[in-house]
Amino acid sequence: MNKLTYTYLDGLRNLNKSINRELTRDYVNKAKGVLSLIQSGQLDPDKKTNKDGRGFHKILGALCKNYGCYWSKNWDVVLDLNKTLAKHLHKCIDDDFCQIFPVTGKTGKSMQEQIDKFSIIQSDSAYPSSDILHYIHNFIKIEETKLKAALNRDIVDMKMDIYSSIKITILNQMASCYQQAAAVTGTGSMKIKQDLLISTVDNVKQDMFNKAKMEVLQRFNNLKLDIKSALEHELQEAIERSQSQTGKKTRMDVSREIEQLERLLDQLSD
């Protein structure tokens, strides 16, 4: 278990260093870029919808009402200010993130690899001479395999949860600004909305991205603790169940069922 713990701690340290290196670079420019993209006619130059500013006003208003996101059916494009602001943090952690949560292949640092290597049964080939212990080992190996498969499925789900937490944290931090901007009406409201969004990003960027960073690290640490706890408690329970069975004077003979299962497994592996 120590090897698993050290691997995850290294991952946490690397993620923290990666994020800290370029924590606030270009964030305001990212926000301005999205707003400029909306204002320009590049999204649909043929329709000339920013010709008099009304198209931009409508899009900006919808973006504020939808908490930073606007989707145009006509343009078939999604404008997401939160995603744009999160992109830079994602870029900072991508290398280490892909090492810990690879889509395919082995990296030597992935959670799945460490879990697959872990086993409380020290040898797959050398079974003890006792039939009872042989079945105990088989039972524990089966429980281990089921548990590892479940944990690996959990890791896939949590990978997306951890990665998306950056955008969610930014959205939560920007929510009051979106609400305030959406409520602005009347003459000059378009400029007020735009200035409000940009100034808010500028004012809260340090705190906002620190919170996003800490959320990533906290969720990653929680995943590590959940895996450690599951391995300890589930396998301890499996050991206790197997011991309770061997302690009975009359044991149910399941050798035929085991042989049938082994044949099925052999067929699946062919």
Tally of domains:
1
Shape: elongated
Given the helix and strand composition, which structural class is it? Answer: mainly alpha
Poorly predicted parts? 41-49
Largest sheet: 2 strands, antiparallel
- Mean pLDDT figure: 77
N-to-C series of helices and strands: HHHEEHHHHH
Beta-strand percent range? under 5%
- What is the number of beta strands? 2
Can you characterise this structure?
Helix content is 73%, strand content 3%. It has one domain (2-248). A hairpin with a 4-residue loop joins β1 and β2 (77-80). A two-stranded antiparallel sheet has the order 1-2. The protein has 8 helices and 2 strands, in the order αααββααααα. The longest helix is centred in the last third of the chain and has 58 residues, at 189-246. The chain has 270 residues and is an all-alpha fold. α1 packs antiparallel against α7 (189-246), α2 crosses α4 (81-100) and α3 packs across α6.
